[in-house]
Amino acid sequence: MRRALPVLLAAAALLLAACAHKPTQPTPGSGTAVPGNGSGAESSGAAGANSNESAGAGGGGQEIAGPAAGLLAKHAIYFDFDSSEIKGEGTDIVSAHAKYLSTHPELHVRLEGNTDERGSREYNIGLGERRAQAVRQALLLQGAADSQISTVSYGAERPVDPGHNEEAWAKNRRVDIVYLK
Amino acid sequence: MMPSRRPLTSIAAALLAAACGCAALSAHAQLRIEITSGVTDPIHIAVVPFAGGVPAVPTAGADAATIVQNDLEGTGRFRAMPWSEMKAKPSAASQVVIPDWRASGNDYVVVGAVSALPDSELAVDFELLNTLTGEQLASQRFTGAPSALRNAAHRISNVIYEKILGVRGAFDTRIAYISVEGKPPAQHFGLVVADADGANAHVVLQSDAPIMSPAWSPDGTWLAYVSFENKRSTVYVQQVSTGQRQLVSARAGINGAPSWSPDGRKLALTLGGTDGNLDVYVLDLRTQQLTRLTDDPAIDTEAVWAPDGQSVYFTSDRGGGPQIYQIGVSGVDRPRRITFEGSYNAHPSLSPDGTQLAMVTEDGSSFRIAVQDLASGTVRDLSPGPLDNAPTFAPNGAMLLYASIADGQSVLQRASLDGLTSQRLTSDQADVRDPVWGPFAHP
Q: Do the Cβ atoms of B371 and B382 come closer than 8 Å?
């Protein structure tokens, strides 16, 4: 039990150094738990955590504004509820970006899949990914190279509009095409 | 019985907060509880303010009785007699004139006293009396540091609840949830641990990137969760008491939906891989061995373990819309479909005894919490919708906690499994969502 204090104090010291700048910051909880008890998760480093890492998914590259002429100025593709079908103007926007990417092989895009807030959050991660993959396939079919494209799904976690109505939901069911250097 | 190190850890925690200039941390996600519906014929109980106090907490007796009263009323099953209406304030059973309390409409009376012990500890003695029979149903003492008074009161509530209703109380358990402050795109996310009544909220992780899907280890000392701090989803496990954490899955593509096996040795996970096809896997935390459970082009995700550890329930849209399936963890079975009512069933959550399956169900654009009896297949709606989500069972199986939208705000809602009572937990400063109820604190 008494071992908790040094650990906490050490954590306090660490945080003192780090708190100001680190965007993501774990902090100790209420202290009712016994350190080191049980789960076995504390053993053996983060083995496997980075295995099978690929350059593809997320991260990497610095975000840039990307093209802004005509349809290329539009960087969001919108979807119906529980659907990953690219429809209407979305088809033309994707075509314009595919063409642009095929003539600018030095550029990369990250496709960020999003959903509205309704229903299961983890299922929505899957749905956001499916939407991003749908745009990826459409870009590939129209001349973009696989090496130019990465995908990430934020599910319902990154809404554009925080409202709880159809108008907000329609804006949030989208894939954002983010250009990277 | 109660840990005496509490004051020391409090000092360290205060130091910590001061050091960071993050003093607002533990305050910003504090929850308020309000009863949104209760039974029409509640049990009437008089929780007489306990006598006494200690130098550190002069009002300890009254404080303890207030917490007990709030715990019991918070279930929606009890109505507590206002102190102002009490003609006597006995502090021991020997002083209770039973007929008087029965005459004022009470079914039960609780009396107690707080006294000082050596080493700055305190003792809380309480007795529970039945006014109809005069029988003493419980008489017990809890001891500990003054800072553990709240915990002692919750454990008194546990005893009262179990003696009267025959169901183990879960008042001294903890919940975890996600808090979200600010408007897009500048949102701040917190992983928060609080007492089951919303008190003692502590932010154990804060981030400018989304955090989701917290999951308790079976012993209640660790949380697994998904963090987007690396611009994509990764899964961490974090020791709640120290904040020490470890990255357990940052594989290519999606890493999501962690769920601890009942023995605490494995995590069920969702992995997406480079092709973005979500399937359910089991990761052995010690050996890092990864076992694939599902292999289907559909979305397979958010697995939760059966209590026997032999199978998981998960969401899949392999049949069209999302439905709940069950598959053995040996990796050789084919999944068995569990839900058949409605076109959208997701986010499975299993009762502690494994007999009830709670889920999010959609009918006619309203998302509600529904509970399916696994033996009979009978499904009933538990919540009114329209935007309810993320059900999680209390460890005693008597209540569910879930996320909801009320007055344009994300709130947590508690409901009894029979649907008769509900309470809302709101934060003034943040949207709160994605709750998960922790295990019993004591075996």
A: yes
Domains annotated for chain B, with CATH where assigned, are 10-31+173-437 (2.120.10.30), 42-165 (3.40.50.10070)
Select the residue of A11, A121, A159 nearest B184 (Cβ to Cβ): A159
Is residue A17 less than 8 Å (CB to CB) from chain B?
no
Assembly ipTM? 0.90
CA distance B312 to chain A (A): 16
What confidence tens digit (pLDDT) does each residue in A82-141 have?
899 999 999 999 999 999 999 999 999 999 999 999 999 999 999 999 999 999 999 999
pLDDT in tens, B180-192: 999 998 999 999 9
- Looking up tokens 């999010």, which residue turns up? B360
Query: Is the Cβ of B20 closer than 8 Å to some Cβ of chain A?
Result: yes
pLDDT tens for each residue of B31-64: 888 878 777 889 999 999 999 988 888 999 999 9
Q: Which residue in chain A has the smallest CA separation from B186?
A: A158
B282 in reach of chain A (CB within 8 A): no
Q: What is the pTM of this model?
A: 0.87
Interchain pair A27, B217: CB under 8 A = no
The reply to whether A62 touches chain B by the CB within 8 Å rule is no
Report B:120-159 residues touching A (Cβ under 8 A): 151
